[in-house]
Amino acid sequence: MHPADPLLSVRDLRIAIGPVDAVRGLSFDVRDGEVLAIVGESGAGKSLTARALLGMLPRGATAAGSARLRGETELVGARRQVYAGLWGRRIALVPQDALSALSPVHPVGDQLAAAVGSVRRVSRKEARARAVAALEQVGIADAGRRARAYPHEFSGGMRQRAVIAMAMINEPELVVADEPTTALDPGTQRHVLELLARRREETGASLVLVTHDLAAVEEHADRMLVMYAGRAVESGPVDEVFARPRAPYTAGLLASLPPDLSPALPAAEPLPGRARGGRVAGRRLPSIAGAPPTLAELPPGCAFAPRCPLARRAEPAELAEPAELAELAELAELAEPAEPAEPAELADDDRCRTELPEPQRLGDGEREVACHRWSELPDRPAELFLENV
Ligand SMILES: Nc1ncnc2c1ncn2[C@@H]1O[C@H](COP(=O)(O)OP(=O)(O)OP(=O)(O)O)[C@@H](O)[C@H]1O
Question: Where is the sequence biased in composition, kind Basic and acidic residues (predicted)?
Answer without folding.
Answer: 349-368
